[in-house]
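Chain A, query sequence.
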Amino acid sequence: MVKYEGAEHYVPEGRGLAELREAAERCRGCDLYADATQTVFGAGPQDARVVMVGEVPGDREDATGKPFVGPAGGLLDKAMKEAGIDRDGVYVTNAVKHFRFTPAERGKRRIHKKPSRGQIVACRPWLVAELEAVTPGVVVCLGATAAQSLLGTDFRVSKQRGELLDLPGREARVLATAHPSAILRAPADDREQAYQDLVKDLRIVAKAT
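Chain A, predicted structure.
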């Protein structure tokens, strides 16, 4: 694992979301800032009872500077509404704040690439600071990257998906489920069931808040 300087050197003492967001724009804790358009920090109310944590910003998020505004974000919004979660009361963010990608062989398209373990570790102080600022009742880990960032590398979404667990180190519950992008990539015949499984998990969150 490549070791980076880490974001802890950039996280300010005053940890309101506005201060954190401004400071994150200057983060050089890993190498992803060099190619990304901008930092994509979390968004939502500071008094949110639910925090949704994804993996890494996508192409559209990198362009706009806002999390979950692409196709996966649209699917998540739809699933939250169906599950009975007020989207306006949710804080959404990612385990890693800069877009990681590889250029397509042809054209200008940028292909999403999963962040490395070193990059996830380097960026984790921002996620911890967000959780300290928001103090949610439930944290939802969307996919393995988010889950392992908060619950350790031994955690397997496939084994403990949909379970409400205690979040180590803070007074909150945590639930891991699939990332909406995984549903969009699923074979057409499996997509509806995968979506319904996400809604089922989010209904557990709705009942717990």
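Residues 188-208 form the longest helix (21 residues). The helical segments are 17-24, 59-64, 71-83, 117-134, 144-151, 157-160, 180-185, 188-208.
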